[in-house]
């Protein structure tokens, strides 16, 4: 009976974690370039007891272990905005931005220029080019960004937006502000990534799928809670009957 309670609690902890992941996905349905995450769980079989006095062989107890979350790298829908500073990333590449904590990576291409003429993200982080931040003069016109990330105006080329890929993108960690961090060194994207100017990649979260997952989690959590409650009642009844016999 005690094992059954432990199994139920481990299931509830896993379901709570999945609920947090779903809630975060739903909160970012409208976030440019956001990539959804999915929970990953693993079965853990408790080793059998070693006592030889049992009349029947001991049965393994199966628990649930939270194995983290997987990043859904599917391409989000591309929406035309007409803004020459907006770029949508196609392929497996990420844009590089400079933050106070060093280089970070994003798929959000909603760029703008700050008061100094530096190309920045909507959060004010400088966009990294092959040679560092990209500067555009206040009087320059005819801004265009090519498929390879080259930024140019009527006065010439001003830099090229840096695109990178990772050998294991699943190791990327969310760091807030729609940014990812990585302990591994990125590689130049090459043909693995291109950009489309005047457009933005929208979130790849599918609201209908997430709502279905949410209902399944709530239903399962309620069911597990009912089992735990009944087991608790059963234990209470057993204790009272044993007391009566004594």
UniProtKB/TrEMBL annotation:
Domain Flagellar basal body rod protein N-terminal: 7-35
Domain Flagellar hook protein FlgE/F/G-like D1 per the UniProt entry, residue ranges: 88-152
Locations listed in the record: Bacterial flagellum basal body
Residue ranges occupied by any Flagellar basal-body/hook protein C-terminal domain in the UniProt entry: 197-240
A Pfam family this chain is assigned to: Flg_bb_rod
Domain of life, source organism: Bacteria
Entry keyword set: Bacterial flagellum, Cell projection, Cilium, Flagellum
Quaternary structure and partners: The basal body constitutes a major portion of the flagellar organelle and consists of five rings (E,L,P,S, and M) mounted on a central rod. The rod consists of about 26 subunits of FlgG in the distal portion, and FlgB, FlgC and FlgF are thought to build up the proximal portion of the rod with about 6 subunits each.
The family this protein is said to belong to: Belongs to the flagella basal body rod proteins family.
Protein name per its UniProtKB record: Flagellar basal-body rod protein FlgF
Organism of derivation: Methylobacterium goesingense
């Amino acid at each position: 009976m005690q094992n059954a309670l432990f199994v139920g609690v481990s299931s509830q902890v896993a379901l709570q974690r999945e609920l947090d992941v779903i809630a975060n996905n739903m909160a970012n349905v409208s976030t440019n370039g956001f990539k959804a995450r999915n929970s990953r769980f693993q079965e853990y079989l408790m080793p059998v007891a070693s006592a030889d006095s049992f009349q029947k062989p001991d049965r393994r107890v199966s628990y649930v272990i939270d194995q983290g979350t997987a990043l859904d790298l599917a391409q989000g829908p591309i929406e035309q905005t007409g803004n020459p500073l907006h770029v949508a990333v196609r392929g497996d590449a990420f844009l590089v931005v400079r933050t106070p904590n060093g280089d970070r990576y994003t798929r959000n291409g909603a760029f703008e220029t700050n008061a100094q003429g530096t190309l920045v993200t909507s959060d004010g982080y400088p966009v990294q080019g092959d040679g560092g931040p990209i500067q555009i003069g206040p009087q320059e016109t005819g801004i265009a960004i090519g498929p390879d990330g080259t930024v140019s105006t009527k006065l010439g080329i001003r830099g090229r937006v840096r695109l990178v890929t990772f050998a294991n993108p699943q190791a990327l960690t969310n760091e807030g502000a729609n940014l990812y961090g990585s302990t591994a060194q990125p590689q130049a994207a090459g043909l693995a990534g291109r950009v489309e100017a005047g457009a933005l990649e929208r979130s790849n979260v599918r609201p209908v799928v997430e709502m279905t997952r949410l209902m399944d989690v709530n239903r399962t959590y309620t069911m597990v809670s009912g089992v735990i409650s009944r087991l608790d009642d059963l234990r209470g009844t057993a204790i009272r009957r044993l007391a009566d016999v004594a």
